[in-house]
Amino acid sequence: MGNSRKEKVSKAIQAAAAEFLARSMTEATPGFVTVSHVKMSEDLKIASIYFSIIGDEAKVKASLAILENHKSRFRFHIGQEVPMKYVPEMRFFIDDTMAYLDHMNRIIRKLN
């Protein structure tokens, strides 16, 4: 039952964060930013939000810095959109899954 609640909260926060990005942050970030997934702590007090950022390394770093600067606005928006007793602390991370897959594909192509 606890995992079900955690998954529901993760999905709700992911949707609220994606909505905030689409409405408020499209012009602010130099790279193309999407929310790839959200992981909640067991007590639901920490939300680890993973972003996919398309762009070169400089754009990725700049976009993450801008997101960090707007963390309080993110948290406020999520507090408005997701009914919870406590609004979780937000931690932002870059989801580098696509970069890793691209790297592995290049290695496989070299082997063939």
Protein topology:
Elements: H1 2-25, E1 32-40, E2 46-54, H2 57-69, H3 71-81, E3 89-94, H4 97-111
Task: Explain this structure.
The protein is α+β, with helices and mostly antiparallel strands. The protein has a single domain, classed as 2-Layer Sandwich (GMP Synthetase, Chain A, domain 3). Helices cover 56% and strands 21% of the residues. The protein contains four helices and three strands, in the order H-E-E-H-H-E-H. Strand 1 and strand 2 form a beta hairpin. Helix 1 packs across helix 3. The longest helix has 24 residues. The protein is globular and about 55 Å long. The chain starts with a helix and ends with a helix.
Structural key phrases:
112 residues; alpha+beta; GMP Synthetase, Chain A, domain 3; 3 strands
